[in-house]
Amino acid sequence: MMKILKPTATMAATALLAGLVAAAPVTAGFYTFASADMALGNLRLTFSGPDAALTWEDEWFGEVPARAQDTVFGSDDAFDAFLGNAGDITATVQTTHVSSLATYQVIDGENVAIDPGSSIVATTRSELEIAGKNRQGDGAANARFDNYFSIASLNPSGSTIAVTLLLDYAGALTGTADAGGFFDVTSGAFIELYAVDQVTGDVSDLLAFDQVFDTATGTNRSYTNALTGTLAIIVNLFDNQTYWLYAEADSETYGAVPLPATLPLMLLGFGLLAWRRRR
User: Are 237 and 151 in contact (CB under 8 A)?
Assistant: First the structure.
């Protein structure tokens, strides 16, 4: 199930490159701004049968990598991870032109999606602003979490239980560049459900997933978009068997302010950042 589907950054860059090569350079300032953010939270599970019960089989595990780099400062990276049912972590980085932030928090993890006072939240943000000639930068922030769960019914009506998993998302993209600047910005999130070998405990087949993303790229233009909604997975799961849930939020930005004549060459040599579903 795809919430938003737009051309990839690479496809957009190819079209942009063709236009730049065909057109004569225009007079330009040298400025670009880009920002992307995404938040995940309010995980819910509903299932058939009033006597069915959800059990989280492990503690929640979260990771938050963040990256920023530009041609003035260099690069800065941060990473943190946490295993537990109560805690939070943050990864934040800053260079001259770029900043990135990723956060993760779990409260009363044993009762997430069971008790309204429990929660799990992941957020990301990356932003850059560049002015001046012959500069570039990029940033990325990622927040992800996972856990194992089972659903058991005291009076099962069959071998499977109809289950709906819901996870709210809220994100935004902004990009602007004058005729001497260039931006590439992406924001996205996804949720995945996997089967688990009931003997070995190994994660195996991907059963279902849902995702949302948006990406924009360009020069001498502005772009803004808000992403809000709910990721949803609807499946039939076996009673009293273990499954693995994984969710991820991503934000990525890239910007450059080269001389107009050098921009096509830079696009040829630079692999643009693009959000992608990762296992």
Answer: yes
This prediction has a pTM of 0.83
Kindly give, in sequence order, each residue whose CB lies less than 8 Å from that of residue 18, ignoring residues fewer than 6 positions away: none
Q: In which band, very low, low, confident or very high, does the pLDDT at 271 lie, cut at 50, 70 and 90?
A: very low
| 182 contact partners, CB below 8 Å, separation of at least 6 | 32, 217, 218, 219, 255, 256, 257, 258, 263, 266, 267
Where does the pLDDT of residue 156 fall: very low under 50, low under 70, confident under 90, or very high at 90 and above? Answer: low
- Which among 217, 35, 250, 31 is positioned nearest to 126, based on CA atoms? 35
3-state SS class at 109? helix
Q: CA–CA separation, 9 vs 27, rounded Å?
A: 25
Tell me how crowded residue 62 is: count the other CB atoms within 10 A of its CB: 27
Dihedrals phi, psi of 70, to nearest 5 degrees = -150, 170
- 38: enclosing H helix or E strand: strand 31-47
Contact 145, 120 (CB under 8 A): yes
Q: Read off the tokens for 33.
A: 């701004």
| pLDDT at 3 > cutoff 80 | no
